[in-house]
Amino acid sequence: MADALAMDKVDAGYGGVQVLRGFSMDLRAGEVLCLLGRNGAGKTTALKTIMGLVRPTAGTVRLGAVELSALPAHEVPKAGVAYVPQGRRLFAELSVAENVEIGLNARKKGNDVRESVLDLFPILRERWRQRSGTLSGGEQQMLAMARALCLEPSVLLLDEPTEGLMPSMIARIRETVASLKARGVSTILVEQRVDAVLSVADRVAFVENGRNRETVEVSRLRDEPGLVKRYVGVG
User: Fold this and answer.
1) pTM of the predicted model as reported, rounded to 2 decimal places
2) Where are the domains of the chain?
3) How far apart are CA 17 and CA 20, in angstroms?
4) pLDDT tens digits for the chain (235 residues)?
């Protein structure tokens, strides 16, 4: 199966602070890849580099034949990559409907895309006219994902989507990622807790000190739980 996205020997950081060091990673078409690692390991920087929000000083980021690292940041979503950052970044004063409309406008999508996205998140139909800042944390996460999916992306980047959510909402987010996989969307999922992703991920990449130390199939992770402790420091 062809790679949906690949980072090859990427260096990147902020000002004079280097975060990613020769970072390489591949995302296969239609898979869920989880990035696991301690705080500060470089997981979020990897996502921001894919989106062009952090410019690599070396290496390349490609989506199929398109070199994303050569594009300005505002062109990356148009190439089919959607990003839900940690903390969601909704327009809190705007309604659910208006936030969704912003997502649709990014790639000039219409009513059919909106209905397809809302089928994934029926609760948003009920909250359609509600100001997004008044939604629960779980509902806000669903809205952030819905807005990103209005791009009809081939690749979705999720940065700690289950952080601070109730177990029922975490289960709903996992179900959504599985539904997207069935639709052919490839997902990179940044998480702190391995138990939040084992049921939905295909592979796990362990990020440490700005490098992808090892990428393993989830089945191996179940057989060798010591891997998680080695890289993340929890059992």
Assistant:
1) 0.92
2) 3-80+153-232, 89-152
3) 10
4) 455 899 999 999 998 899 999 999 999 999 999 999 988 899 999 999 999 999 999 999 999 999 999 999 999 998 999 999 987 788 888 999 999 998 888 778 888 899 999 999 999 999 999 999 999 988 999 999 999 999 889 999 999 988 888 888 888 888 889 989 988 899 999 987 777 777 889 999 999 999 999 999 998 888 887 888 887 775 4
- Sheet holding 81-84: strands in order across? 81-84, 155-159, 186-191, 32-36, 203-208, 211-217
Structure tokens at 67: 């070199």
Strands 17-28 and 155-159, bridge-based pairing: unpaired
d(CA 204, CA 13): 23
Question: Which positions ≥6 away from 197 have C-beta within 8 Å?
Answer: 32, 34, 36, 174, 189, 191, 204
CATH topology of domain 3-80+153-232: Rossmann fold (3.40.50)
HEC profile for 37-51? CCCCCCHHHHHHHHC
Task: Give the Å distances, CA to CA, from 179 to 14, 28, 117, 121.
Answer: 35, 17, 11, 11
